[in-house]
Structures
1.
Amino acid sequence: MIHSRNRRLRVNESIRSLVRENILTTDDFVMPIFVMEGENQQEAIPSMPGIFRRSIDLTVKECKELFSLGVKSVNLYMKVSEHLKDNTGKEAWNKDGLMQQTIKAIKDAVPGMIVMPDVALDPYSIYGHDGIIENGKIMNDATNDALARMSVSHAEAGADLVAPSDMMDGRVLAIREALEETGFTDVGIVSYAAKYASSFYGPFRSALDSAPKENVEIPKDKKTYQMDFHNSREALNEVFKDIDEGADIIMIKPGLPYLDIVSKVREAIDLPIAVYNVSGEYAMVKAAAQNGWLDNDKTIIESLTCFKRAGADLIFTYFAKEAAMILGKY
Ligand code: PBG
């Protein structure tokens, strides 16, 4: 006769909720946002149904809505005009640049919103790379100097945290030192510590027109700086280095196919862990839901909850607004 019956604790929703181990709330969400030049402009991103590029005024309006739904953090990406791109990325630290104006506008209108600008050169690079290129090579240390300048200019505009997504070696230290020297001791760093070279970034690159250009003199992918998806121990090596250099929050990216990495890093560190539910993951769920092959709402809530189960504290997700609305329904 069996005595141990696991189904006892699954009899109804009340008992299931009593023994539930992980709960998803809007407190966990960071919404990535795409910004473009202009006024009262909004453009749909075809491979990301429901996601738009917006001018600053409409971005501010969106931030107000997000905040009222309980989403208290945004991660910012700029669509940079072609004529402002070069190989140095200098537009990235223009104090009147699109990013700097956007940070100011959001902080003015919604002071409680945590604003995390992306720190990487790819949207500003004529080559679509996260680093400065010389003789066909990504120049690590020269890129770090640029990223440090960019981070300080984000802090001057009012950023709460900066989020370097470039994967150069030593950039967390370079950014931390630059922020300390300029007095921005309270501006934190969300470090993309374990970021893999992934095909799941496709829709994002088309949203910003930032894919590496097809040019024989430059690397056509990001494999010399982003991690190899065959590896997992290497992620811990990256994470420990970034912590030593002064990271405040550790990011793992992509998300759903990389939950083993989230779980492994969770066992190893006590710093907050962020996970990025990237554009390709968003596109897959949306495409299936639009075809009636998956239940949209249930799939979103299940996937986001799985990030928490794996050990993440923060979830960067294009579903943030929609998930906040779904959670509000129950
Ligand atoms: C680039 C950057 C990328 C993403 C965030 N920052 C793309 C890349 O590394 O090529 C991807 C985000 C997504 O796919 O949602 N610094």
2.
Amino acid sequence: NLQSTKTLTNGIEMPRLGLGVYKMTERNETLQAIDKALKFGYRAIDTASLYGNEEEVGEAIRYSGVKREDIFVTTKVWNNDQGYDETLRAFEVSLKKLNMDYLDLYLTHWAVPETFEETYRAIERLYDEKLIRATGVSNHHEHHLQKLLAKANIQPMVNQVEVHPYLQQNNLRAYCSEHDIAVTAWSPLGRGGVLDNAVITKIGQEIGKTAAQVVLRWHLQRDTLIIPKSVTPSRIEENAQVFDFELSLAQMDQIAALNRNERFGQDPDNFKFNF
Ligand code: NAD
């Protein structure tokens, strides 16, 4: 069912499907995409201060007719706002832009070596002050998480990283699972770049599903949360139709064999500001 959730360590239910809104820069396009997604049953939106569309996200939610408390809203602190006080200030700005009085999840966008630990401490404080319902990070490798876990009062509940059939992140997933950290896949479709793969399209033909649906279902069966992005209504709908069928073990194995550690985005250990 579309409302399927994963229970985070603190008992909060996080929708397994959300709409990613990276690169939605045109106001009407963003409002329209979120409106459609909520009509099709999405109950989570993934944004970031970097995306420059927090105002539109807030606006679309307010006009949707869906109650604020029924939608899971995630945003992220950008790299040049990191640090303890800086993060608290950046959060306030995001909250104002979204025009909300709390957020569901706040993430460190990338593990900037000098500041990611202080940044997470600020996220813990926001949680203590009940301004966010869950804590988390993005683009953290196992070695980053180890540092956070060594000091954390509240352990990160979510790690959002690049995952798709060409970058399956099996070691990081195992580590997160051991520590009860939910994994969200960004670029779950490899920015569209895995959809022409012959193995994936063949599985789709076998079961009468599109390549995108096969890939999104593969994530779900590996207990990974998904935030596919699209501004096209038919695709937004298609990407949500992934809760009423199952891939066989043989099909899961065929996709497992496609792993080749290929990134479409950047490596968290080697982040370049200008991309
Ligand atoms: P994605 O894998 O979701 O791919 C999106 C692209 O795939 C679309 O632009 C479209 O071209 C294509 N597509 C989508 N649905 C399709 C369908 N049904 N059929 C055919 N093509 C389809 O890539 P993404 O946008 O990079 O990632 C999704 C979300 O993840 C972002 O919007 C953002 O919210 C988040 N993200 C986070 C980070 C981070 O650093 N934390 C980085 C990148 C993305």
